[in-house]
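R.M. (postdoc): so does anyone remember the format we settled on? I'll just put the structure tokens first.
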């Protein structure tokens, strides 16, 4: 059983957030709240700002203007947050060694790491591959291992950036099943994806972004049944947005 610390990070509130790199605007006055509950899925074309939202929510970036707060505070370290990038780097050690390294970084006591690593590897379906070098795992297995490393932080919030990109259908289904399991444990999942089918299958609510702006934020059923903007309707139909 994973022991959970008191809630510390949620809700995460973006208040009129602007983010720019030089003269290039990446996010334009985004106001958004991530609260406990079913997964939130970010969708939109390339360059919409989805990854930047995830990095700001993690605390890896700071807004150029506006504010991001965690449970009403702006000085919260990422103790209860974890992020998994689209192409996570595997350390040159075994699957178990990767998880033990993540547990050490998260402050887990040395005496507890082996048992906790075994628990996490079992959770993500990698128990038979404990001793295999991480870089020899398949793409889907590496994504599972990356999830185990993220869960080593015992997060309240798990941020996922295109976690099934380039995976075959069987591996995609395995990762989606894991995301459902994680969400059922009370961990808030915020995920960026290009896959509208995946968004329908996993989301409780949808955040649709385009050109750095939040265009729509709605319940998943309402968003797909009755989009409120022409851009969202085009995106759902598979038309190109420019």
């Amino acid at each position: 059983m994973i022991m959970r610390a008191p809630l510390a990070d949620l809700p995460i509130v973006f208040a009129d957030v602007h983010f720019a790199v030089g003269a290039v605007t990446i996010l334009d006055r985004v106001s958004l709240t991530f609260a406990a509950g079913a997964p939130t899925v970010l969708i939109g074309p390339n360059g919409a700002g989805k990854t930047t939202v995830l990095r700001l929510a993690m605390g890896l970036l700071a807004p150029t203007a506006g504010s991001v707060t965690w449970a009403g505070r702006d000085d919260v370290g990422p103790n209860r947050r974890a992020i998994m990038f689209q192409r996570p780097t595997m350390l040159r050690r075994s699957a178990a060694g990767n998880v033990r390294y993540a547990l050490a970084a998260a402050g887990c006591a040395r005496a507890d790491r082996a048992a906790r690593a075994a628990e996490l590897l079992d959770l993500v379906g990698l128990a038979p591959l404990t001793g295999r070098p991480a870089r020899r795992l398949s793409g889907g297995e590496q994504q599972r291992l990356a999830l185990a490393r993220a869960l080593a932080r015992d997060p309240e919030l798990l941020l996922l950036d295109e976690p099934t990109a380039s995976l075959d259908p069987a591996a995609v289904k395995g990762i989606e099943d894991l995301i459902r399991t994680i969400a059922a444990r009370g961990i808030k999942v915020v995920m960026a994806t290009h896959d509208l089918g995946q968004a329908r299958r996993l989301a409780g609510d949808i955040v649709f972004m385009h050109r750095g702006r939040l265009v729509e934020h709605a319940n998943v059923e309402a968003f797909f049944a009755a989009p409120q903007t022409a851009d969202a309707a085009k995106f759902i139909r598979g038309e190109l947005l420019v």
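R.M.: ...and that's the designed sequence above, right after the tokens. Also worth knowing: Residues 75 and 181 are 30 Å apart (CA to CA). Confidence is low (pLDDT under 50) at residues 1-5.
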